[in-house]
Amino acid sequence: MAERLPRKLAAILYADVAGYSRLTGEDEEATHRTLSAYLDTITAMIQEHGGTVMHFAGDAVLADFPSVVNAFECAVAVQRDLKARNQTLAEERRLQFRIGINLGDVIVDRNEIYGDGVNVAARLESLAAPGGICISDMVRQGIEGKLDIGLKDLGEQSVKNIARPVRAYQVLPDLASGSKSDSVEPAQLAVSDDEPSIAVLPFDNLSDDPEQEIFADGLVEDIITTLSKIGGLRVIARNSTFVFKGRPIDVRDAAKQLGVRYVLEGSVRKSTNRFRISVQLIDAKSGSHVWAERYDRTIDDIFAVQDEITMVVATEMQVRLTEGEQARLRYTTTSNVEAWTHWVQGVSYYRKAVTEENSAGALACWKRALALDPSSASLNAMVSLKHYSDARFGWWDERETALGKASTYAARALELDPQNADANVASSLVLLAQRRYDEAVLHVRTALKVAPGSADVATFACFVLACSGHPAEAVSHGERAMKLSPNYPAYYLGILGDAYRLAGRTDEAIAAFIAHNDRSPGFGLTDLVITYQQIGQPEEAKQTAEQLLAVRREFTVGAWASTQYRADKSRLEADIAALLGAGLPMS
């Protein structure tokens, strides 16, 4: 029988330079001299923190430590020191390391370490921001309560050659100054007393009928949407709070994960035409109940109850409301109960993956709702949004037909309520599809003004602004969307990554596209091909193109180009050339 190889449990640190190939291509000797000096520094710090350098591979370093605390403190020290050193270099010559840390069982052989524990650390490194640190859940548990840090939960990540997903966390503090970082994963999870913040958790369905889940979920959706109209309040988006749906929840843990001071939780029991809603507003800092109420009403009172809940919540959190915000705190989607029922059924499709089938389900529900309340600006806007998606992706109608429908519904929504956020978002997207970029920007900025706390609006704004020639402004809204939705959908990464790319923030763009592909295989790769090709890394571009075609065999450059909007036509032409240059088919 073969001799068993020795194994051990180790804290593994893996570090690699972001954008190294580009830097060497521009000035190979200068880059190597800087790298050599930085590697000497990293080696010394690893030894100072009780670790051992196990391997160098070009610009990468692998080390193991007997303690996750030692490994983490070393990573912090390294990033702090390298940031200071980079300040003495021209911005284009700076070397930024990404660092991944994992705790795992490894094989020890000939002074090297091997195995899944090492592979996970290397994969975590690729998820980190340039100059940042990404850790596994095992490391988080090991340092919890021992070190004062802020973490962003990246959720379950698929790791190459590892059977099970790995839960990853990005370290939030700016390691040089102790302030919070907004580099690639910009969510701000630290709770600030200066900015009121709230998460509305999914309400429990106490009815015997499981279909009443849609009623409960729709109620929460509406409360979140209404609260998002308050400028002085940070409201966590639905797609982040609903990760707690169906799970036993410790309110204080949920608040800590989402970075909020207050939590609203509740339950709903609905039977025929009556409902009972119980709600509690909790100050997560102290764990005390700020306010609680129970409503036993008929279904016709559902909108009045929503209005009361949102107004009381804002008052109890001592949010200062302007007159305009007080007016917007009224529920305005529809005043027709039957239409509202169809509306929330449509939302249940809308919050799923963006597919032709789900979009068709949402559109059918919303058209039924609109037939019952044709004077609803929001319903007109959301029907417009689905026809816009059809025009972009070619699901049902010819493009011009679909765009004409989208334009008609958006115009009607604006006519009904020029200050409605949904109406302005729909209008901006239609105008974008019509290549009327300046007008699109005006409408999306109006939507941002009237719904400043909406992650959805911020993400749409990021998309519209980036396409319309305002990438720096787009980035700010894309990053804010992630703060408003710490458990953001994967497509947020694609939208923000494109804004980073167009703004010239290449390393951050690459990190976002890689993370997008990790969460939604095949997506993010098109932009990654373009980026690699345009920064002079044709081999990486070609390899990524092959990876793209392996996952999305039907991909063509022509089909992709038909879904893209650019105020700068030369930019789109350059992107198309980059894709073709990497070997992707035109048609």
Describe the structure.
Helices cover 52% and strands 16% of the residues. The protein is an alpha/beta fold. The chain folds into four domains: 7-171, Nucleotide cyclase, GGDEF domain (Alpha-Beta Plaits, 2-Layer Sandwich); 197-328, Rossmann fold; 333-389 and 398-432 and 445-451, Tetratricopeptide repeat domain (Serine Threonine Protein Phosphatase 5, Tetratricopeptide repeat); 458-587, Tetratricopeptide repeat domain (Serine Threonine Protein Phosphatase 5, Tetratricopeptide repeat). Strands 1, 2, 3, 4, 5, 6, 7 and 8 form an eight-stranded mixed sheet that branches. Strands 9, 10, 11, 12, 13 and 14 form a six-stranded mixed sheet that branches. Helix 11 packs antiparallel against helix 12 (356-372) and helix 12 (356-372) runs antiparallel to helix 13. The relative contact order is 0.07.
